[in-house]
Amino acid sequence: MKKVILVVATVLILVIGIQQFSLAWGRGNMNGNGSAVAAACILDDKSLTQAQRTQIAALQQKHFDGMATLRQKTQESMLAYRQTRALNPDDSAALAAKRKAVEDARLAMQKKAAELRGEFAKILTPEQQAKLGQGLGRQGGQGRGMGRGCQGNGCGW
């Protein structure tokens, strides 16, 4: 009898644990602009020529490489803000400066993403741009993770 209770309790704990772990991931906070997902959607478009695919893939790689330093700067700024908030919560001037650094880093990343969308628009024909939707995936949808894009209605097709 004790073995049966032990087995049932173990199974119950595993089921609850797995359920809690899977639910902990959630849907993300949806605050991204979806440019990476939109770029992936662009390459799935059947109307692209091989030359366009090659150009878009090159732009994606260039953008990814250029964003590495900006991502690092954003992470460092966020860490510095969190540390300042934890160690000196009453120092409003220092917190404001750290918060501004985080916002500046995020704005730089958003500017870079907007530049990438502009470069995509130069490569695509007006018909392809219309098919993909205004903003190249920025209208978004309900999807998983940190952004909007193909999971919802963000691809435009």
Structure description:
This protein has 157 residues and is mainly alpha-helical. The chain is 70% helix and 0% strand. It has a domain at 31-132: Four Helix Bundle (Hemerythrin (Met), subunit A), CATH 1.20.120. The chain is flat and about 70 Å long. Mean pLDDT is 75; it is low at 26-35 and 137-157.
Structural topology:
Layout: H1 2-24, H2 35-44, H3 50-87, H4 92-123, H5 126-132
SSE run: HHHHH
Class derived from helix and strand content = mainly alpha
Number of helices: 5
Shape: flat
- Might you state the CATH topology name of the domain at 31-132? Four Helix Bundle (Hemerythrin (Met), subunit A)
Assign the CATH class of the domain at 31-132. Answer: Mainly Alpha
Q: What is the radius of gyration?
A: 22 Å
Helix content: over 70%
Percent of residues in beta strands? under 5%
Distance between the amino and carboxyl termini: 59 Å
Average residue-wise pLDDT:
75
pLDDT < 50 runs, ≥5 residues: 26-35, 137-157
- The tally of beta strands, per DSSP, is 0
CATH architecture label name of the domain at 31-132 = Up-down Bundle
How would you characterize the largest beta sheet?
none
